[in-house]
Design a protein that fits this description.
With about 450 residues, this protein is of the alpha/beta class. The protein contains 13 helices and 16 strands. Helices cover about 25% and strands about 25% of the residues. Belongs to the class I-like SAM-binding methyltransferase superfamily. TRM11 methyltransferase family.
Length: about 450
């Protein structure tokens, strides 16, 4: 997720990866080309994957290469941060290795050739410099010397504290499938949500995905077929609580974080039958459709689709519903996004996958939408879900209404309609194996 999040944010702010560096996705350190420090700070105000950003002064595969790189760095770029009336300190961060204090001091002393004129202040310095050392990703095979060394001036930290401050554990209104805070912010960043955007979630549930978008200044709305969830009624999902309280709803969640002013509304609606007027209404669509595991996949109508009237039970406030196959859910979502997204707008959604049958060809497509990224999150040894990001690149025409049926893209994913059965097949096999082992 990290590479795609940073790539999306760089495209939003106008930066890019350095052309001089081979992109090593699994490396803990990346070199980016960012036009200004202001832009770098803007990126770090968004990312939850990156820890910090630095102005790179030197880089090498050995200490000698690092020192040579530092000596060739323009002195006029260094001097504003090394003045005699300034204060500074130097940190050392080693990835996959721990150094003693004596080793750290030795490495810092080796930088005495740099024209530091200010005073050292370990508690509250004006400028902070970092030595970063990469010892690889294998904790069982740590090299004696680092593979890469970097030296730079610290600019800003990322937003990892949002993961804790927006934790679902602290949230007022939750459900069985409320999205993890970290993933919610990653989805908003993949969608390039920005202030004053209108963000829509067609399977809104308890509104977890709306919160991250509202945090970034977007106006948010959503729909869901479940009347009780939209209105905060019925049984609670929280432990030791039987029924939901009178103020447990999506609006209350946004109010909890001071984001109520960005809340447009949440409506009871069937996503397979759009209620919106024709036109490009939404800047971003971010959603997590139901997979049929903890939340049912359903739509209005009887099993034979003969019920045309939206009859509603006065007792439990739900529509008469029928099965809604996963393939239908995602291709309805494609059609909706193609029609209602603005040009350049993004669709970000989760696609459940049975891994033994997965190929990239089964990812739903639409002629109006371009695939931007495809990231995997493991659910079990045999199932996962892919975070799919698509961008609208073509204006929707009437002839695009059912184009997905013509290009062969509808059929490949239909095998995942039984995702629920395949998901639990692994659980059943594991239980049977454990029972057999315990009988020995």
């Amino acid at each position: 997720f990290s590479f795609q999040e940073i790539t999306s944010l760089l495209s939003l702010y106008g930066g890019q990866f350095s052309g001089e560096q081979e992109i090593r996705v699994n490396s803990p350190f990346w070199i980016l080309s960012i036009p200004s420090e202001e832009m770098a700070r803007g990126l770090m105000k968004r990312t939850v994957c990156a820890k910090s950003v630095f102005e790179l002064w030197g880089h090498g595969r050995s200490a000698g290469e690092l020192y040579a790189s530092l000596k060739s760095y323009p002195v006029d770029k260094m001097l504003p941060y090394l003045q005699s009336d300034s204060t500074y300190k130097v940190h050392i961060h080693t990835f996959n290795k721990t150094l003693t204090q004596a080793q750290k001091v030795k490495k810092i002393d080796a930088l005495e050739f740099l024209p530091f004129k200010g005073k050292v202040n370990l508690k509250n310095p004006e400028h902070i410099f970092w030595i970063l050392e990469d010892y690889g990703m294998d904790p069982n095979n740590v090299p004696e010397e680092p593979f890469h060394l970097y030296f730079g001036r610290w600019i800003a930290d990322g937003q990892r504290e949002l993961i804790e401050s927006y934790s679902v554990k602290k949230r007022h209104f939750i459900g069985n499938t409320s999205m993890d805070a970290c993933l919610s912010f990653i989805m908003a960043n993949h969608g390039r949500v920005k202030p004053n955007d209108v963000v829509y979630d067609p399977f809104v549930g308890t509104g977890g995905l709306l919160i991250s978008s509202a945090h970034f200044g977007a106006y948010v709305c959503g729909t869901d077929i479940d009347y009780n969830t939209i209105h905060g009624l019925g049984k609670a999902s929280r432990k030791n609580q039987k029924w939901r309280g009178p103020d447990e709803n999506i609006r209350a969640n946004l109010r909890q974080y001071g984001l109520e002013k960005y809340y447009l509304d949440a409506l009871v609606s069937d996503s397979s039958r759009p209620i919106w007027r024709k036109g490009m209404l939404f800047d971003v669509i971010i959603t997590d459709p139901p997979y049929g595991i903890r939340e049912a996949t359903r739509r209005m109508g009887s099993q034979k689709e003969t019920v045309k009237s939206a009859e509603r039970s006065t007792e439990n406030h739900i529509f008469v519903s029928s099965n809604y196959h996963l393939s239908d859910i995602f291709f309805d979502l494609m059609k909706f996004a193609a029609e209602y997204l603005v040009m350049g707008g993004r669709l970000v959604y989760w696609l459940p996958i049975y891994r033994p049958e997965y190929t990239e060809e089964i990812i739903p497509s639409h002629p109006c939408l371009k695939l931007i990224s495809n990231c995997e999150q493991m659910l079990s040894s045999h199932t996962s879900r892919r975070l799919i990001t698509m961008e609208k690149v073509k204006e929707f025409k009437d002839q695009d209404q059912d184009s997905y049926l013509l290009d062969g893209q509808y059929m490949p994913y239909r095998g995942h309609n039984s995702f629920r059965e395949k998901y639990f097949s692994g659980v059943t096999k594991r239980i049977a194996k454990e029972e057999k082992y315990n009988q020995k």
